[in-house]
Specification:
About 0% of the residues lie in helices and about 55% in strands. It is an all-beta fold. Strands 1, 2, 4, 5, 7 and 8 form a six-stranded mixed β-sheet that branches. The C terminus is likely disordered.
């Protein structure tokens, strides 16, 4: 099962955005997957903010919370498209571990007061704000 969904609500640059995901089987009926992962990618397929193959707890529907560097404008445009690509497996009358895949496309609005040259680098304990040359601007401990 593969779906492409385009969300009409824009995300705001470096804000918070919830991406809804509902899982269905080959007949379009709701299903609880046996395994789920997601990745955040630009239109050209490049992974954004290291968000690749992130595991989720399976449920019939989930919300993927994006924020900060997930929603940074990387190409300096007025709007930038991103996709959350979700891969899952489920059991059905056709068999076990049937693969499913979804792409949820959304756009990010470029806010004029946020400098494009700055980006966030994220690790488990802190968020660093660096300029385009990699020079440290600010450290915010989690």
């Amino acid at each position: 099962m593969a779906n492409i969904t385009v969300l009409s609500e824009h995300a705001m640059e470096r804000s918070t955005y919830l991406v809804p995901v509902a899982f269905t089987d080959e007949d379009g009926a709701a299903v609880t997957p046996t395994a789920v992962t997601w990745s955040l990618v630009k239109a050209n397929g490049d992974v954004v903010n290291g968000r690749e193959d992130v595991a989720l707890t399976p449920a019939t529907s989930v919300g993927i919370l994006l924020y900060g560097a997930d929603l940074a404008i990387l190409d300096g445009q007025g709007y930038e498209a991103r996709s959350v690509v979700v891969e899952y497996t489920y059991d059905s009358t056709l068999g076990d571990d049937i693969p499913g895949k979804q792409e949820i496309v959304f756009t990010i609005a470029n806010l004029k007061r946020i400098p494009r040259a700055a980006q966030y680098l994220v690790d488990a304990d802190e968020v660093d704000l660096v300029d385009a040359d990699g020079a440290l601007i600010q450290v915010a401990n989690g």
